[in-house]
Structures are given as C-alpha cells and as structure tokens.
Amino acid sequence: MKISVVGGGIGGLTAALGLLRRGFDVQVFEQAQELREVGAGVQISANGTRILFELGLEKEIMSVASEPGGKQIRLWNTGKTWKLFDLGPLSVAQYGFPYITIHRNDLHQALAVGIRRIAPDAIKLGMKCVGIDQTSRDVKLHFADGAKATSDIAIGADGVHSVVREVLFGADKPTFTGIVAWRGVIDTKRLPERFHRPVGTNWIGPGGHVIHYLLRRGELMNYVSVVERTDWQVESWSVAGTVEECLADYQGWHEDVHTLIKSIDTPYKWALMLRQPMKEWTQGRATLLGDACHPTLPFLAQGAVMAIEDGLVLARALAANPGDHDAAFHSYEAERKERTTKIVKGAEANLGRFHNPALSDPALAETYVNSEWEESKVRQRYEWLFTYDATSVPVSPDRSRPLMSTA
Ligand SMILES: Cc1cc2nc3c(=O)[nH]c(=O)nc-3n(C[C@H](O)[C@H](O)[C@H](O)COP(=O)(O)OP(=O)(O)OC[C@H]3O[C@@H](n4cnc5c(N)ncnc54)[C@H](O)[C@@H]3O)c2cc1C
Fold first, then answer.
1. Could you say which DSSP state residue 222 is in?
2. What element of type H or E holds 180?
3. How many structural domains does the chain have?
4. Using CA positions, which residue lies closest to atom 3 of ligand 1?
C-alpha cells in the first residue's frame, strides 16, 4: 500500500516511521523548505516515550532530552512552592518509561533519523499541499507548485490549520479563548543557579500561569506562559512580541518570573483558540491525525503526545487490516476518539484551575491549592494519561465497535 502523509510535524513523522517499520511505501510531504521545528520545548510523558522507544529511537531521544525529577507548583506573587508529583526514576518504575522534556527540533530530528534509516528519500520538503481529491481507487494530492502525488491512501497530519481537514470537512470555526500564550527558549547559563534544578515548574495565578522546564540535557530552559487578554487574536507559532510586552502581562508576579522573561531574547506570542471535537476524521481514502483533527489547549501538555499516539495506532491499524483501509480507519477512529476528546475537555478544565480567582489572596490560595492538587485528585487527572499503551491497544477489524459520537 502506498501512503502519502501531508505534514512532517511530530504526528506525521511518527506515523511515517511506524508505517515504514511495518513495510508500507510512505512519502511525507512537508511544506517547509527545511526540516526545522520552532524554537520551543515539549513535555513527553511516559505514554509518549513508550512509543518513541518502540520506534527504535531511545538512544537518539535520551541523548538530547532532559528528565525532570518531578513537578512543582508555585504561587504567582509569594513564590510559595508545593510539590505536585515525582517523576525521574518514579515515572520509569510506575509507567515503564521516562517522562522527558525535549526541544521540538531535537524530537523532530530523531524522528527524521529513524525514517531516513529505512527510506532515505521518504521526506519531501517544500511541498505545500493545496488540494486533495479521490476516486474509489486512489487519492491525489495537489501542491502549490503544480506538482501532484497519487497514493492508495492519504493521512492529513498538517496541524491546526490543516488544509486536508478543510478540503474533507470544510473550514473549522475556532473561537478565541481570551488567552494569549508566550513562549521562549533561554540559555540556562544566563539564569541564576536556583533555576538549574531539573524540576518542571508551574506558576499559577489569577488570570495567568507560567511553566518552565529544562531542555537538551539542561542546557536550555523552556518558558511558556499564558495570560488572559483579548487584544491579540493571531494563532501562529512565529509571531514575535517583545520582552517589555511580556513583562507587562506579568506585573506583580514573583521576581523569578521576571528573571526568566528578561532572559528571553525573543518571546513569541500565540492566541489560543478553542475548537469543538470533530464528529468524523475520515473520508474515503483519507484520514486525519494530531492537531488536524483534535487540537487541544496545551493545559495537560498532551497535544504532541496525542499526535504521537495517533501515529502509532494508525500504523498498527493499517498493518492489522491488510488491504482494507476502511476497516483500518474505522479501528483507528474507534480507538482514538474517546481518549482525545477527554484530553481536549480535561485541558479546558485545567484552565479554571490554573487561573482561579482564589489565587489572588495567599491565604485563600493555600486552601485552594491543598484541595485542588490533593494527591488523589492529581492521580485521577494524570494517571489515565500516562498508563495508556498505544503499542497494544486493540486495532483489530471489529466493525461492531462504535465510533464514539462527539456531537
Ligand atoms: C504553547 C504550547 C505549548 C505546548 N506544549 C506541549 C507539551 O508540553 N506537550 C505536548 O504533548 N504538546 C504540547 N503542545 C501541543 C503540541 O505542540 C501540538 O499538539 C503538536 O505539535 C501537534 O502535532 P501535529 O503533528 O499534529 O502538528 P504540527 O506539529 O503542527 O505539525 C504539522 C506539520 O504540517 C506542516 N504543514 C501544515 N500545512 C501543510 C500543508 N498544507 N502542506 C504540507 N505541510 C503542511 C507544518 O509545516 C508542520 O510541519 C503545546 C502547544 C502550544 C500552543
């Protein structure tokens, strides 16, 4: 079976590698001229590293990742700290695999190395897909430069602004959350010693929160923060703001937050949009994965991990249903919809928690944090995420299995 993947992001590359390892003929069409991800980090929990290791990338990943020993919460103004949970060896003991934080570009390069080891020319760069049409026999992609590519099936892994999704299901209708995200990467050497501990930190405050964690063996610090403001509605990874503007969004916050912001060369800003889960992901010979079909707010840090899970489950479903893409796509959707919908909803719910008005008063905040981040509640929020095993969930041709309705 010849398979086209539109988009060489985290999900598209994972799907391609999973498929190549199962003997499929795969081509990835990426719009960028160079395989280079934006300067930002991503957290990959055990449910994601399980897959990356299964794809043969343990050495490539662990040589560039950081492994936080745990996570902590800090209060926006006083800096009071609460332990959230331990990670490091505990993640491996409990879930079988490490929890890592990694530069997106490092993750990208590791996936590309895995692909090129099997098929050196599988990734085609500078190929912006602008259209897709299909017959009962095949599917054809159209590119901005006039080129075309025909395959048996196509996978739209082209992210939140997916062209494939738009062609198959029409334009989406995002609503602005009223929240803007800032991000930046800092050379750790520029930060005081106290920032060098490998602990993921989540500052919470009324109307905003700040997250930072180490990348690339501790050499870099990833900074992401969000703030409630309604004057900026551009959804893009590459729009730059200024340090002054970012600082102004965190007036009154702890000096550690200001130290971080002042150390960023160029902070980038992104308006966060909300989208309702899609009822269908597949049409005929084409399906979707990752942000193309279930974009999520980043407040459970699972968007990229979901794209990774989708990629492997889809590759397994196609291998388990030889020559029957209908059955494979059905099994894939049946397995993935409920979980990804739950993640989209869970991330939304975390917003109310991270920005709660109770956090403005240190005394109220103490009670609020002790109750909301009580151990059993935290376990309930995260355990089901980390224990999922995409390498063994069912992908058999069971047509009686319902496709969950997300209407
Ligand atoms: C602030 C922020 C922080 C986040 N933190 C985390 C985190 O800690 N952990 C986590 O798991 N997730 C995180 N996420 C979410 C995560 O980044 C996304 O869910 C993930 O990147 C989705 O992967 P994807 O492969 O579906 O799409 P993308 O990574 O967006 O990749 C899509 C690819 O398709 C290409 N493309 C697009 N259109 C076309 C076209 N027409 N033709 C050809 N190619 C095309 C793009 O160039 C890109 O390479 C975060 C998101 C945000 C906004």
1. E
2. strand 175-187
3. 1
4. 298
**Is 213 known to be catalytic?**
yes
CATH number at residue 96: 3.50.50.60
- Residue 222, in any domain of the structure: no
Q: How far apart are CA 227 and CA 250, in angstroms?
A: 8
Q: How confident is the model at residue 374 (pLDDT cuts 50, 70, 90)?
A: confident
pTM over 0.85: yes
User: What is the C-alpha to C-alpha distance for residues 227 and 253, in angstroms, rounded to an integer?
Assistant: 12
* Contact in structure between 79 and 254 (CB atoms under 8 Å): yes
**Could you give the percent of the chain with pLDDT greater than 70?**
97
Tokens of 92: 């491996």
Q: Whose CA is nearest to atom 9 of ligand 1?
A: 301
CA–CA distances in Å: residue 396 to residues 153, 320, 400: 19, 6, 11
85 — phi, psi (to 5°)?
A: -160, 160
Q: Which of 31, 71, 100, 213 to mutate to test the pocket of ligand 1 (most atoms within 8 A of CB)?
A: 31
Domain containing 86: what range? 2-173+275-386
121 assigned to some structural domain: yes
